[in-house]
Amino acid sequence: MLATTYLGLLAVTFFIGRVVPIDPVLAIVGDRAPTAVVERIREEMGFNLPLWQQFLIYLRQALTGDFGTSVLTTNPVMTDIVRVFPATLELATVGTLIGAGLGVPLGVVAAVRRGSIADQIVRIVGLIGYSVPIFWLGLLSLLLFYAKLKWVAYPGRLDVAYEYTFTPITGLYLVDAAWTRQWDVLWDAFRHIILPGTLLGYFSLAYISRMTRSFMLNELGQEYIVAARAKGLSERRIIWFHALRNAAVPLVTVIALSYAGLLEGSVLTETVFSWPGIGLYITNSLQNADMNAVLGGTIVIGSVFITINMLSDLLYRLLDPRTRAK
User: Fold this and answer.
1) Among the four residues 138, 226, 287, 323, which has the most C-beta atoms within 10 Å?
2) By the 8 A CB rule, do 170 and 176 touch?
3) What is the pLDDT along the chain (326 residues), one digit of tens a residue?
């Protein structure tokens, strides 16, 4: 099943790359190149072959991590992706930690106090998170927290003073700065990531809180909750140690999919905040007709999504004995 899904991903990206009105050969040699040069490059790149042969070549190269050379950077696409992906990974991780850390408790409170003012507030917050365009909220937050209040740093990952003196190890600036005990760099990296991370966390919170509320309402209506109350257990213990523990089984999948969604859906956030991640890389590549980079980045993001989905299914089976029995 996993192999079929990945093969489908490669097939979709391949055919998208062939039907878009962008000639990759002209993107390399330019519009004014002689016809002979264009045809020679087209033959060298294999675009004169039948479509099925082109797909087989594309499949073989993709499975070995060869996505061609970027027209924009002149580097192998995989080299560029390895360089920019840690930025997206760090931003999505911060967003997921904020979203799950706040979304789960808010969802629990909304379920326990169903119909109350607290429930209505949580639902309104979630509705706004679903409805407001992320780029608009990003621009608004920059205007308020950076331009007006000066609470956060300007867009990017680090100040210019640290960009050429700080040598990252893993590409995760917060982790690398803490590991090397460069506390000034750590604080600067935190001031840069806190606003886009909180923005992504808010949209993750909207989804996680809604699903937590739904799962908790289902668990609170079960017979074992009635039995626990009849035994005289405290309400806090019933909610947080019994109902939430059972609701956590499907909630793991929700958080995992939310995390994968932030990894693949942070293009607008990275663009607004000039965050040098894979989303901004794909956007810049698309604007410059660099289809090798666009398709390579799409495959990597799709592969990450498939992997996280598979791991969440495995974790679901480990946490829920009923699925193992089947």
Assistant:
1) 138
2) yes
3) 667 777 887 888 877 777 766 666 766 666 677 777 777 877 766 777 777 788 888 888 888 888 888 877 888 889 999 999 999 999 999 999 999 999 999 999 999 888 899 999 998 988 888 788 888 888 899 898 988 888 888 888 899 888 888 888 889 999 999 999 999 999 999 999 999 999 999 989 999 999 999 999 988 888 888 888 888 888 888 888 888 888 888 888 889 888 888 887 677 888 889 899 888 888 888 877 777 888 888 888 888 888 888 887 787 777 766 655 55
DSSP 48: T
In a domain, 72, yes or no: no
Short-list 318, 315, 296, CA closest to 307:
315
Whether 251 and 215 have beta carbons less than 8 Å apart is answered as: yes
Residue finishing a domain among 63, 87, 105: 63
| Statement to judge: residues 302 and 154 lie in one domain | yes
Number of structural domains (the chain) is 2
Cα torsion at 292, 298, 302, 305 (round to 10°)?
A: 130
Distance between CA atoms of residues 197 and 210, nearest Å: 20
Q: What are phi and psi of 11, to 5 degrees?
A: -65, -45
Judged on CB neighbours under 10 Å (0-12, 13-18, 19+), 193 is buried
Dig out the tokens for 245 from the structure. Answer: 């523990």
**Are 56 and 281 spatial neighbours (Cβ–Cβ below 8 Å)?**
no
Going by the DSSP 8-state scheme, the letter that residue 69 receives in this structure is: B
Give the C-alpha distances (Å, rounded to integers) separating 166 from 26, 87, 173, 188, 264.
Answer: 38, 15, 9, 11, 27
- The domain of 6 spans 2-63
- Residue 163: how many other CB atoms lie within 10 Å: 10
The set of residues, in sequence order, having a beta carbon less than 8 Å from that of 268 and lying 6+ positions away, is: 134, 135, 138, 279
Kind plus residue range of the DSSP H or E element containing 212: helix 183-220
